[in-house]
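Retro notes (design track)

What went well: tokenization of the new backbones is finally stable.
What didn't: we kept losing track of which sequence belonged to which structure.
Fix going forward: every design gets posted as structure first, then sequence, in one message. First example under the new rule, 547 residues:
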């Protein structure tokens, strides 16, 4: 004799009383439907809701819904199901026994068959490929891997110090995070401290560590932010990654030197971003307290410009000595200067350098010339006078407007705060979207401006800034820079140029345009590649350290 035909879920729900359907669908569902479309609260709608509330297989596997379905069965159909399951009980015991039997995993196929439910076929799985490329989520380019490996080797051997020298835009921070991850895995119970001067650099370091450790870490790690309004309990910070602003940590050092010394006990590696600042009097003692507290503590510097000046060998030698003359340089076989390789391979944009002769004719007095010769950079008084020169400003504004025909994102380095406002306001009046960012710009406003600048709007946007955005500012779409602020510092010049030369393989552009305003009797530079080799003479290892 053939088996009983069972009953489909559609037929079961279609014959159920409305009160039972409401209970199955759920009161909340009915209430929401009643509030939105009361005319749809009909028996037919409830049947559709019941059938569609869960896929049939899931409804039968879910014990709450399965129990409701079994209770809805007519006695005759309940008896048929009981027979399939091998039950022989009275009508009085039938439904409790069915509930018990149907809860067993071994009964599932019988129940599914009874209700006419067919298990969906699993899609045929393709066999695993014999070979497969697995792409890392936080990988390095080959030249970056080489630098990281050399730096790690230097940090675990005496004198446990080195400086990583990579050109602007070549991925220093990403490379450094691989070094951080490796060192933190080697000494998971200790701290790594990352020091930087600006909030942009500090924000960048913290966010990059989060991304890096998520991909490279081998366990939980704490991230401490210690700058601005961030105030973690670093007294009890025992392990992890501490990103600290020089100013805030130095204030702590002056207030509580013992606390900083105890921090040095817990620190295995101190990293100095923009390391050419490391030997400044306010920072040197701070770094030394951390690095020298234990013999095995390590010190890593990061910079694109391993010198403090352009032509003062003694000042630059002081920096080299601080890192024990140890430097890991980005070297590419077949290329004298790695910048050429980075451009050829698309890591840096092909940069077109041009000068804009201001012909400002600024009269420099004997006192001006003496001050210019003795100061580390162009004195602010001279910069202020340049900023007021009408002819110079007309040329600058006209040039920016011309550049905006070719570029959608332009960054301008002004000679003063008032100069930045002057340039930006006139650009706005003449129809070019422009914003000002200086050290006095409100942080919330600055964030909004930078979001706009980094956005996808194809229309040209210009940021005119003074005193900020030379480091830690990452806007890959920036393809042009106009440098209207003369400087004696090859370091500063390189940093300004670096904001616009990100290549396509690093999320930037194929080409970049760098326009430098030149002024009579004032210093200037013309090519960022100069910066990479300018300081090599002071980094030659001492005779007793040569291999």
């Amino acid at each position: 004799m053939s088996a009983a035909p069972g009953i489909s879920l559609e037929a079961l729900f279609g014959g159920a009383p409305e009160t039972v359907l409401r209970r199955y669908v759920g009161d909340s569902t009915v209430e929401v439907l009643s509030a939105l479309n009361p005319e749809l609260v009909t028996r037919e709608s409830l049947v559709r809701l019941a059938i569609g509330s869960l896929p049939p297989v899931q409804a039968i596997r879910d014990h709450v819904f399965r129990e409701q379905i079994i209770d809805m069965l007519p006695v005759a159909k309940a008896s048929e199901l009981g027979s399939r399951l091998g039950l022989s009980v009275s009508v009085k015991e039938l439904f409790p026994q069915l509930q018990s039997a149907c809860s067993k995993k071994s009964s599932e196929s019988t129940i599914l068959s009874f209700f006419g439910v067919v298990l969906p076929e699993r899609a045929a799985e393709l066999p695993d490929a014999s070979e497969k490329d697995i792409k890392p989520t936080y990988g390095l380019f080959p030249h970056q891997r080489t630098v990281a490996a050399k730096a790690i080797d230097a940090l675990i051997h005496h004198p446990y110090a080195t400086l990583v020298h990579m050109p602007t835009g070549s991925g220093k921070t990403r490379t450094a995070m691989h070094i951080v991850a490796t060192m933190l895995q080697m000494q998971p119970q200790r701290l790594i401290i990352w020091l930087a001067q600006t909030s942009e650099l500090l924000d960048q370091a913290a966010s990059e560590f989060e991304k890096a450790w998520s991909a490279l870490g081998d366990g939980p790690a704490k991230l401490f932010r210690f700058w601005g309004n961030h105030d973690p309990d670093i007294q009890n910070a025992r392990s992890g990654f501490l990103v600290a602003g020089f100013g805030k940590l130095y204030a702590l050092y002056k207030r509580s030197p013992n606390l900083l010394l105890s921090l040095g006990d817990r620190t295995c590696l101190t990293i100095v971003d923009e390391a050419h600042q490391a030997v400044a009097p306010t920072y040197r003692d701070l770094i030394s307290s951390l690095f020298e507290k234990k013999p095995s503590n390590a010190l890593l510097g990061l910079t694109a410009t391993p010198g403090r000046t352009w032509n003062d060998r003694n000042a630059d030698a002081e920096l080299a000595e601080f890192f024990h003359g140890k430097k890991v340089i980005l070297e590419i076989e077949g290329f004298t200067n790695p910048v050429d390789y980075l451009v050829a391979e698309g890591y840096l944009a092909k940069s077109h350098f041009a000068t804009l002769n201001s012909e400002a004719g600024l009269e420099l007095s004997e006192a001006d010339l003496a001050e210019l010769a003795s100061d580390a950079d162009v004195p602010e008084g001279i910069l202020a006078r340049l900023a007021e020169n009408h002819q110079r400003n007309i040329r600058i504004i006209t040039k920016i407007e011309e550049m905006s025909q070719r570029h959608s994102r332009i960054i301008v380095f002004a000679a003063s705060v008032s100069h930045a406002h002057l340039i930006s306001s006139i650009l706005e009046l003449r129809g070019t979207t422009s914003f000002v960012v200086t050290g006095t710009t409100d942080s919330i406003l600055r964030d909004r401006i930078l979001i706009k600048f980094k956005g996808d709007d194809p229309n040209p946007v210009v940021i005119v800034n003074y005193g900020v955005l030379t480091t830690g500012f990452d806007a890959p779409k920036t393809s042009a820079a106009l440098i209207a602020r003369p400087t004696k510092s090859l370091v500063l010049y390189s940093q300004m140029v670096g904001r616009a030369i990100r290549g396509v393989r690093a999320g930037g552009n194929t080409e970049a345009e760098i326009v430098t305003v030149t002024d009579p009797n004032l210093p200037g530079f013309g090519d960022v590649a100069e910066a990479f080799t300018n300081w090599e003479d002071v980094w030659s290892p001492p005779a007793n350290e040569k291999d």
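Added context from the reviewer: The first strand starts at residue 161 and ends at 165.
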